[in-house]
């Protein structure tokens, strides 16, 4: 008998589980199809499916969609009967269903009756936080923003122990009441500093919706006033730092961070991150100030070594980008590297400094023998991984190529390739080796190597290989003589060797001897890069703009547009122009290797410099509301 009962229970359980699985599958299938039809505005097909899903789930969201379908189909009376029947089944009646009823009446043109139903919804709110949330969110979904605000204000009176600051701030956002919105967010931050990420995210969205572009001024004014009146609330200072970073005002952000650190002594990580952000944005001065502050705390500070390394890295990048021809500054930097590596010692964490120091000596101070000596010391560090050794050997090969020893460079490149067959470095060095063949005039061999690299897992390597391969193929086949391509390759080698004046002379000679050759856009691009190296940014922009206007369809089109955007963003300080170019990259060159960087930088700039679209302010704000994440 026991066995029979046990078998029956197992069979019953299996049937129950099977029934539940079948129900879940049916809900998933019907809900997916219903939402698909709803989004496509095919309300007739969505209507019965939503009704079935609601019957299975009793989820009010599906019911709201169901009623919306009936409204769109102008089935007002039937919708009211449905809501009435549903309310009769509810004990007690759910207040959000009165809002659906009001929504139908409003669509029917009965505004007073709709208002009465909305009030009925408010009167039926249960005295708990969840009920207030439900009703306020239902009003919000129907764009009844004032009513949503009123519900939360009532909730604050009825439930004084609960906090509704975040929810009220959202309602004020939709009402374009920036002053009260900011007040609520700042109150939230005062109560609990752990809300900072949430407040930052919400304000970032609010600033994107700010059509009049006045929210930033209001934010700055209110936060500074709070800091002045309530200096003990550190959250206000942290929020202001976040704001300065959004606007790339690294100097202001650093001052605030240092001020907090002098009070708390706990800002080392934030200051290190701030320095790294400034460095990525090429604000070398502020980056070095941040690192210096950390170093001034003394060697016992856990960030001391990291700050020291970053300081040398920032100084190197500043030199090669802003002062490449200043030999005096270069020698001072070399002394800083020497002193720094003596203190930090050679090891895995200082390999970047070894490479930069060697590159400085060889390519800028014209002392390749010192660069070689430094790299050989680095290669001799015990315990390095093959990829780390390979990076140093690849740099050593570059120095030999600078020193006009291509055969030693070729040998070193080959070694790195053999030792790094399973990582991206191998492909990067294969590209260097193929480019060396191109410099030496072995065009067919170089093209064959490049064609293989077009399938590289590294998108950047594959793109560079494809561009050089196509450039060689196009120009080698079109001309009866390879002389123009040989001259161009010679200029590229000089460019690589940082012998810019000689490279420019070769390009000028090429233009003079072969004025109608197919390399014209490539020549313009090389000249632009040479002028950037000389900090002649306006002239470089002219060259790049010519490529974009006249040769945008050619191979260098996306390279030129992206580099032009970078120039306007970082060197010419024309952020709006940069934003336009990043946006154009997305539409004109969707397959470009620069597409992800362009998208990210366009979004960053758009947050600080919102698009100025046509249309009335009310239309723009409503459009932004409809597209918002709230």
The count of DSSP E runs of length 2 or more, i.e. the number of strands, is 0
How would you classify the helix and strand content by structural class? Answer: mainly alpha
- Percent range for β-strand residues: under 5%
The N- to C-terminal Cα distance equals 60 Å
Helix content: over 70%
Please outline the helices and strands.
Blueprint: H1 2-39, H2 43-57, H3 60-72, H4 76-89, H5 95-107, H6 111-123, H7 129-141, H8 145-158, H9 165-174, H10 178-191, H11 196-208, H12 215-229, H13 234-246, H14 250-264, H15 268-280, H16 284-295, H17 304-322, H18 327-344, H19 351-364, H20 368-379, H21 386-402, H22 406-419, H23 424-439, H24 443-453, H25 459-478, H26 483-496, H27 500-513, H28 520-533, H29 537-550, H30 557-571, H31 575-588, H32 595-608, H33 617-627
Helix pairs in contact: 1-2, 2-3, 3-5, 4-5, 5-6, 5-7, 7-8, 8-9, 9-10, 10-12, 12-13, 13-14, 14-15, 14-16, 15-16, 16-17, 17-18, 17-19, 18-19, 19-20, 19-21, 20-21, 21-22, 22-23, 23-24, 23-25, 24-25, 26-27, 27-28, 28-29, 29-30, 30-31, 31-32
Account of the protein in words:
The protein is mainly α and 630 residues long. It has 33 helices and no strands. Helix 5 (95-107) packs parallel to helix 7, helix 17 runs parallel beside helix 19 and helix 27 (500-513) runs antiparallel to helix 28 (520-533). The two termini are 60 Å apart.
Entry keywords:
630 residues; mainly alpha; 33 helices; 78% helix; 0% strand; elongated; disordered C terminus
In short:
The protein has 33 helices and no strands. It has helices at residues 2-39, 43-57, 60-72, 76-89, 95-107, 111-123, 129-141, 145-158, 165-174, 178-191, 196-208, 215-229, 234-246, 250-264, 268-280, 284-295, 304-322, 327-344, 351-364, 368-379, 386-402, 406-419, 424-439, 443-453, 459-478, 483-496, 500-513, 520-533, 537-550, 557-571, 575-588, 595-608, 617-627.
